[in-house]
Amino acid sequence: MDEKTPAPQTGAEASPAAAAAPRSIGARLRAGRERAGLSLPAAAEKLHLDPKVIEALEADRFAELGASVYVRGHLRRYGDFVGESGTELVSLYTARDVRPPPPDLTQVPQAERRSDPRQLVTPLVGLGCALVLALAIWWVLAGSQAGSTTTSGAATSSEAGPRPSTESVPAAVAHNSTATPAASTPVPAASAPATAATAPPSATAVATPVPQEAPVRPTQLRLELASESWVEVYDSRGERLYYDVASAGSVQSIEGRPPLRVVLGNAAAVAVQVNGQSREIPSGAADGEGARFVVNRSGTLSRSRQ
Questions:
Q1: Within a 10 A sphere around the Cβ of 32, how many other Cβ atoms?
Q2: pTM score
Q3: Minimal CB count within 10 Å: which of 39, 121, 241, 287?
Q4: Rounded to whole angstroms, how far apart are CA atoms 181 and 153?
Q5: How far apart are CA 220 and CA 26, in angstroms?
C-alpha cells in the first residue's frame, strides 16, 4: 500500500499558532494602541500622561517609572484604555518580581534643629552651687584652724610660769598683765560659723526652677481611600508612622507629633481629614498622579519642599 504524504500547512493554518505565541506586556500595550489607531503622543494626551511614560510602558522599562505602585496604576489605566485587561497586565508585572527599590526619603531636607539655651541653665546652676559650697567649707576650716592656733598660744603663755602678784609690780605692769587675756581672745573663730551659716541660703537662691516646655498636642490624620494608593507619613522627628500600599475602600487613621510629612501615590483617590476637619490637598503639592505635602501644627496643609 502506498503511504500518503501529509500535505504541508499553508500560511493561513500556521497563523493561529504564531498568534498564540506569548508576548511581553509592552508589546501587548503597543499592539492595542495600534489597533485603536492612536499614535503615542495621542494616547499620552488622552490619558494626561507624559509621552515618556507611554514609551517606557511599551518598552517594558518599568524601572524608569519609580515605585511599583505607580507602575501598577499606569498598567491598569493604559491596558483598559487600549482594550487589554489591566488586571491581567498587573498580574503579569507582579509575577516578573522586578520591583525597583522604594524611593529614598531620607534625603528629604529637614529643618535645622537649634539648641535650646535653656538646657544650659541646670548645669550652670549646679556648678555655681558647688563653688559656693566649696567656698563655705574652706571658710569654716580656715576659721577653725585660726581659732585653735590662737587658743594653743594663750595656753602656752599661761603655763610658762606663775603670774606675779599685782602687789609686787608697778600699777602699769599689773594693768597690762590683766589686759593680756582679753586681747588674746580669738575673734575670727566666733565669727566664722556665722558667716558659714549664711552661705548656703545664697546657693539655694541661685537654684531657680527651670520652666518646662509645654507638650505638643499630637495631630490626628485620617485618610479615606477610594482606590489603591501608596501612602507614607513621617512625624517632626523623621520617624516613619506609615509606609505601605493602602487598599481601596480602607480608612487609615494616623496620629503623630506635628508637623507631619505625607506622600501619596494616587492623590486623586484620597480624602484627607485633620483633627476631624476635611482638608484639600494644595494644588502646588502635585507630583504626577501623587502629591507631597505637610500637615502643620495648626491643622492646615502646605506644599512640601521636595
A1: 20
A2: 0.34
A3: 39
A4: 11
A5: 42
Cα–Cα distance, 264 to 283 (Å, whole number)? 13
CB 80 within 8 A of CB 86: yes
Q: Is residue 296 in some structural domain? A: yes
* Average pLDDT of span 29-37: 89
Task: Determine the average pLDDT of the residues in 51-75.
Answer: 88
Residue with cell 558667716: 195
Q: What angle do CA 218, 224, 226 make, to 5 degrees?
A: 160
Dihedral sign computed on CA atoms, order 81, 82, 87, 93: negative
Compute the distance between CA of residue 227 and CA of residue 77 in angstroms, rounded to an integer. 13
Number of domains making up the chain? 2
CATH, residue 253: 2.60.40
CA-to-CA distance for 279 and 272, rounded, in angstroms? 6
Question: What separation, in Å, do the N-terminal and C-terminal C-alpha atoms of the chain show?
Answer: 84
| 142 assigned to some structural domain | no
- State which residues form the domain around 29: 23-100
14 assigned to some structural domain: no
User: How far is it, in rounded angstroms, from Cα 73 to Cα 264?
Assistant: 13
Given 47, 66, 100, which residue is the final one in a domain? 100
- pLDDT, residue 115, reads 64
Contacts of 60 (CB under 8 A, 6+ apart): 24, 25, 26
**pLDDT tens digits, residue range 39-50?**
989 888 888 889
Whole-angstrom CA distances from 151 to 31, 164, 176, 186, 192 are: 116, 22, 19, 7, 15
DSSP code at position 84:
S
Q: Which has more pLDDT, 191 or 302?
A: 302
The DSSP symbol for 193 reads H
201 within a domain of the structure (yes/no): no
The residue among 51, 67, 100 that closes a domain is 100
